[in-house]
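cron nightly-structures :: item 1 of 1
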Amino acid sequence: MRFLLFLCGISVLALAGAAFKALNQNDAMGFMNGALALGGGLIICGFFATRWFWHGLFGGGILALLAFGRGLFNLPGLIKYFQGEQEHGPLPILEVAVTVICLFLLVGVIKTLHAERLRRMLEEGEETEEGKD
């Protein structure tokens, strides 16, 4: 899971670099501001996860949840982009790419938390069965 946090953070930072090359200055700066903050935050959560796994995982999950929720508001811009209104260039595609990255991370965090919950429930069940013997 730590690797996924680092990978998602680096991917978002790479998209920020692509935005700098592909967009006009005004759109690029707006996108880069958010992408650098999100990518940097995910990498910091990855570093936290090396020492305190659950803290880093929860932090990355919350960042992914917030970014995914914000990315859903960008879907009307993607629809306009495919209808031919391309005044912002490929910005809607880059925003959807960040949204998809955050969705993958969010699903990974939820699966990890569910697996841990199941592990603890099974461990607790084994302890109660041992006490009955």
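cron nightly-structures :: done
The radius of gyration is 19 Å.
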